[in-house]
Design goal:
The protein has four helices and eight strands, in the order αββββββαααββ. By secondary structure, the chain is α+β, with helices and mostly antiparallel strands. The chain folds into two domains: about 90 residues, Carboxypeptidase-like, regulatory domain (Immunoglobulin-like); about 40 residues, no CATH class. The longest helix has 15 residues. The chain starts with a helix and ends with a strand.
Length: about 160
């Protein structure tokens, strides 16, 4: 095989090595439920189920119902929620192309920290439910999945 043939073989074989669907073969199980705060459904809440190896995400509708995109890992999962306070986020420049809810939340948090005297929080979810490092919530996801992963949290 000449150098040119070897180089052509290498160029043609490298892209094929990257094919295969990705994701490491992990497929989460279906999880859905509701989120309410102080007995009222909470719309527009980002719901996260996570383990050391996988994180599932969903967003609540007007009735507080969500379904995780990609599901969740079977077994014990930690749970946290995110919802940006629109009063704080209204001061954030969202006209930047490609800006998503996570980026708005991060900018609102940064704005929060800059402000002296406290002011309004950038999150409508209490910190014990909104920080993945300190969340108090967990849920045992069954192997068959569930449609009743319901969370009733308190703002107090």
């Amino acid at each position: 095989m000449t150098y040119k043939h070897f180089l052509l073989f290498l160029i043609l074989s490298v892209p094929a090595a990257g094919c295969g669907g990705g994701g490491g073969g992990f497929k989460g199980v279906d999880v859905s439920g509701t989120v309410s705060i102080d007995g009222k459904p909470l719309e527009g809440v980002e719901v996260y189920f996570f383990t050391d190896k996988f994180e599932g995400y969903g967003k609540t509708n007007a009735e507080g119902k969500y379904q995780l995109v990609g599901g969740a890992a079977e077994g014990p999962n930690k749970i946290y929620f995110k919802k940006v306070n629109p009063e704080v986020a209204s001061g954030v420049d969202t006209s930047i192309p490609g800006m998503d809810a996570g980026q708005v939340a991060a900018m609102a948090d940064a704005k929060d920290k800059e402000a002296s005297g406290g002011g309004k929080s950038s999150s409508l979810i209490p910190p014990e439910y909104s920080d993945p490092k300190t969340t108090k919530l967990s849920f045992p996801v069954p192997a068959s999945g569930t449609s009743s992963a319901d969370f009733k949290i308190s703002s107090k």
